[in-house]
Amino acid sequence: MARLLSRSRLPGLLLTAAVGVEWGRALVERLPSLALPALFVGGLALGGLALLVPREALGLSRRALPARALSGGALAAVLLLPAAARSFVPVPLTGLIGLGAAMVAAGEEIAFRGALYAALRSAYGPAAAVVGSTAAFTAAHALSHPPRFLLPVAGLGLLLGLWRWAFDDLLAPIVGHVVADLAL
Residue 7: pLDDT band by 50, 70, 90 thresholds? Predict the structure, then answer.
């Protein structure tokens, strides 16, 4: 097991697992009766990938917690700007669907900008971490979004990856992604 989780092999394992979970969730969600369970199970599975990297590498320290949470709100506002420019009025998700969507958004951040980013940074440096986590995040959405939406997904991934690099913070990307997904 230690060989499987070596510093150079861990990024590939995490990338494969995170993209695989997202693709599996996207396929299962096509069955209406399984859409809600797929959100919950997918979110938990993505978040569980954090168990494969050291906790201190995830960017979830307790320092400046209120400021980092507030920064997440600012990130959400930036993520919602394109919708506002189109005069789109967001309708927030509520109830179990909203909770499931929030779990998936948080799970995606923990998997891609948390665990995968940390493993890539440790093995190959910060530039590879930003680019690699962005590419994996974009690929993970290939089955659940139309092709024309993948460029904005890549932009979202890049923005959140750069935030993760610049501030060594995962809380603001989690808050921003969850709020934006709930609003859209």
Answer: confident
**Which residues touch 30 (CB under 8 Å, ≥6 apart)?**
none
- Residue 5 within a domain: no
Look at residue 90 and tell me if it is in a domain. Answer: yes
Q: What is the distance, to the nearest Å, from the Cα of residue 140 to the centroid of all Cα atoms in its chain? A: 10
In which residue are the tokens 């440790």 written? Answer: 122
Q: Let me know if residue 145 belongs to a domain.
A: yes
Q: Give the helix ranges, DSSP H, for the chain.
A: 10-28, 35-48, 65-85, 95-108, 117-124, 126-140, 150-167, 171-183
Cα–Cα distance between 47 and 109 in angstroms, integer? 8
d(CA 114, CA 109): 6
How would you label 138-167 residue by residue, b for 16+ Cβ within 10 Å and e otherwise?
Answer: bbbbbebeeeeeeeebbebbbbbbebbbee
Q: What is the pTM of this model?
A: 0.91
Residue 143 lies in a domain: yes
